[in-house]
Amino acid sequence: MEQNGESRLKEPLLPASSGASPAGASPRKERKTRKVMFSVRGISCASCAVSIETVVAGLKGVESIQVSPLQGQAVVQYRPEETDTRTIKEAIEELNFEVDELQEQEIAVCRLRIKGMACTSCSESVERALQMVPGVKKAAVGLALEEAKVHYDPNITSRDLIIEAVEDAGFGADLISSGDDVNKVHLKLEGLNSPEDTKLIQTVLETTEGVNHVEWDTVEQTIKVAYDPDITGPRLLIQCIQNAAQPPKCFNATLHSPPKQREAERNHEIRNYRNQFLWSCLFSVPVFLFSMVLPMISPYGDWLSYRICNNMTIGMLLRWLLCSPVQFIVGWRFYIGAYHALKRGYSNMDVLVALGTNAAYFYSVYIVLKALTSSSFEGQDFFETSAMLVSFILLGKYLEVVAKGKTSDALSKLTELAPETACLLSFDKDGNTISETEISTQLLQRNDVIKIVPGTKVPVDGVVIKGQSHVNESMITGEARPIAKKPGDRVIGGTVNDNGCIIVKATHVGSETALSQIVQLVEAAQLARAPVQKLADKISRFFVPTVVVAAFLTWLGWFIPGQFHLYPKHWIPKAMDSFELALQFGISVLVVACPCALGLATPTAVMVATGKGASQGVLIKGGNALEKAHKIKAIIFDKTGTLTVGKPSVVQTKIFSKIPLLELCDLAAGAEVNSEHPLSKAIVEHTKKLREQYGSHSDHMMESRDFEVHPGAGVSANVEGKLVLVGNKRLMQEFEVELSPEVEAYMSETEELARTCILVAIDKIICGALAVSDPLKPEAGRVISYLKSMGISSIMVTGDNWATAKSIAKEVGISQVFAEIDPVGKAEKIKDMQMQGLTVAMVGDGINDSPALAAADVGMAIGAGTDVAIEAADIVLMKSSLEDVITAIDLSRKTLSRIRLNYVWALGYNVLGMPVAAGVLFPFTGIRLPPWLAGACMAASSVSVVCSSLLLQLYKKPLHVEDAPRPTDGTDLV
């Protein structure tokens, strides 16, 4: 999100994830183009990059090329049937550049819904299974999100093989999305009567320009079409289908909304656990009554003691019959889970449950058979232990799934912000409105013109072309104050139009909208595993085997002394012997310890925190960034656009020769018009206003040649046959331009006023200077002061001159300043501080900040900045407000505290519960933990951890700058 204005309207907020289309149902060629990346040495300036782009773009078969001078890389998209990488490489080498690396980028991406994961060992098992698939480059599995993101080579493997690998590991897998799902529409078809009709529509769609992929669902009679929004859209696709019918046939296509898979599956899982629990209770409650309650109530329970055959009683038989369905039908899921776990060489909760319940059940069966065949044998069965254990574990899983569903509430609320319908306007040739049609938001296409009346939501991202209003953007940015919108200003999908009618031209639709990309980014963050999770992963690897060994030793520790009468006989409860007492202690140890709570401690907290952060206007790109942010000890701030508003304007001009002011500004603007720097835009805007004052209303700038950017210094260009230099003192020194005492004096005077002095030299003679002022952000001073109270030092690093930098720093309260630093120098400063053992954050907004954002431990990009900066950053501050720097750090600290507390909950149950279950307190107090109660404790541990994470939903920002004045230049910051 950037400041209001019409610039970069076609650029998305966040870079779309790359990935080739995987194999699908469509016979259409999937990858019509290929991407190759070159490492190019010798790129010294922007003109080098332009020359490479010009030559390579002219080659037959090359569709696009992007050259990064800072990274020394060139990325080329080409058609393999028309050219190859060797030809492209040779073309670059002919320009006297060295091409060091040649790397094909053949990576596809797919997301899978994983079913049946219960703990960290489950997610690790899925991850290992995926990584063992040939062709899989990278796989990330999120336990709390129940998803996997897989990067793979489509030439080696396919989605089907990846899903098969997950299923072989004992888990379910469904495809959520793939690389071709960036822009897609689902359509329901009517009027198709034969396979020929189906083939006709498929052929028509595949030959339609802009269609990338077509996939049929013959059962539902629906079709999914992936398309390029720059070329086509949903309404054009529907029209193509309707036009394909030859009379008397009539094809009809309407929007089809597939059920929300995540919600549907979660509801199904909740229902499944609930039903299993109820079925278990149906049998377990009578077993509990027949074994623990009725025998205590005479004469009502006396009938249970009647002998059927030898010493086998009615009670024994009923308990056996009622317990068996619980053990083998309701509890079958634990057998399946244990089998798949042991088959792949790891252990999980299912192994513990299966061992515990089987020990209780089959020992009880032995007791019943012994009683059936003997008239003198007396023994106590444990059928209630097995049945109650399964019931309590299912109750715990049910409560856990319900609680886990709450952890994604913030994200689900974001996805529901966009309205369902929009008012589409149609125009005649003269631009007059001829109709207003209410259509589904999903049918909107780029460049559509829509009407938004007061009180309604903005359906998609766009730019206001008519009308004025105030828009409440709090739902996305967390900023409660309505923001004024006028023609030329941007609006965001999902925000609310408060008080005026505005006409908006759609610029981003579907998955390109800011709202969709926020959701995608947060989902990706929730898949990423935080470093603190490694502790749980290490523990979980040996946790279950350790518990099994501990349970066996507990049984031995009670059985052997019992056999040799090493403890008093009255310790053994009535109707038990020493073996049965030892067995109960062993089973209790087995079931009280569960790795589930430990595995859920980190991912659930990260999931809630990233969702909460997004709703507050802070996008955190994963658990790694979230964890590192709490360690920050120093923050480096860029000046322009970060500490300042980022809308500089020329406030004073000075002429040092006889050249007319308008001509000087025209030449300067001609040189600067190709630059994206905020100072360049200020000069161009000043020139336009100056022309209006002189009676000229032309927006055309003088043409320039040999344009070159000098990072941290300025620009040079040949304008109207003259060498024009526009920049600071360093640029003039590079070109050996003499600075007179008058120029030096004016520069000092300007810089003392916290203004940037831009010198303009024509043919190496300084002819004038422009003083540019960029007002400070109103919250800057309070943020720096608050950071100091948090024990974090603030440093300013800027490419601007020393005098201006010091003046700005003094105003906001920053004591350490580095000025006249180029982009590479900023990254070097960060590395120097990291060498001192500091965790360093960088806050910036421009392309020149991207190396520093990448070098920092935590990069924070201002949301109004460039896409390059946003891509390089770990955290995106959507509102462009500095107070969110504090929000990000504070949220990180609160989340890490919550994760530690979760570990205390998870490990606390085991540290305290296992000794109690093993009977440590029994000799002294007579207190023991029956297996069914141990199962209830195990279930409670997982639920308590998830509920603990959910408390992060109550998080509030530590700093609110409520009364700060808005910028006075008429612009509003998002």
TrEMBL record:
Instruction: Output compositional bias ranges, type Basic and acidic residues.
Output: 1-11
In terms of Gene3D superfamilies, this protein maps to: 3.30.70.100, Calcium-transporting ATPase, cytoplasmic domain N, Calcium-transporting ATPase, cytoplasmic transduction domain A, HAD superfamily/HAD-like
Note the InterPro entries from the entry. ATPase_P-typ_cyto_dom_N, ATPase_P-typ_P_site, ATPase_P-typ_TM_dom_sf, ATPase_P-typ_transduc_dom_A_sf, ATPase_P-type_domA, HAD-like_sf, HAD_sf, Heavy-metal-associated_CS
Q: Which residues form the HMA domain?
A: 34-100, 108-174, 183-249
Q: Where are the transmembrane segments?
A: 277-297, 317-336, 348-369, 381-399, 542-561, 581-602, 903-926, 932-952
Keywords, in A-Z order? ATP-binding, Copper, Ion transport, Membrane, Metal-binding, Nucleotide-binding, Repeat, Translocase, Transmembrane, Transmembrane helix, Transport
Per UniProt, subcellular location reads as: Membrane
Q: What does the record give as EC number?
A: 7.2.2.8
State any GO CC term.
membrane
* MF (Gene Ontology): ATP binding; metal ion binding; P-type monovalent copper transporter activity
| Record field: catalytic activity | Cu(+)(in) + ATP + H2O = Cu(+)(out) + ADP + phosphate + H(+)
Disordered: annotated segments = 1-32
Instruction: List the membrane topology term(s).
Output: Multi-pass membrane protein
Origin superkingdom: Eukaryota
NCBIfam families associated with the record: ATPase-IB_hvy (TIGR01525), ATPase_P-type (TIGR01494), copper ion binding protein (TIGR00003)
Indicate what this protein is called per its UniProt record: P-type Cu(+) transporter
Which species expresses this protein natively?
Urochloa decumbens
Taxonomy-wise, where does this protein's organism fall, top ranks first? Answer: Eukaryota, Viridiplantae, Streptophyta, Embryophyta, Tracheophyta
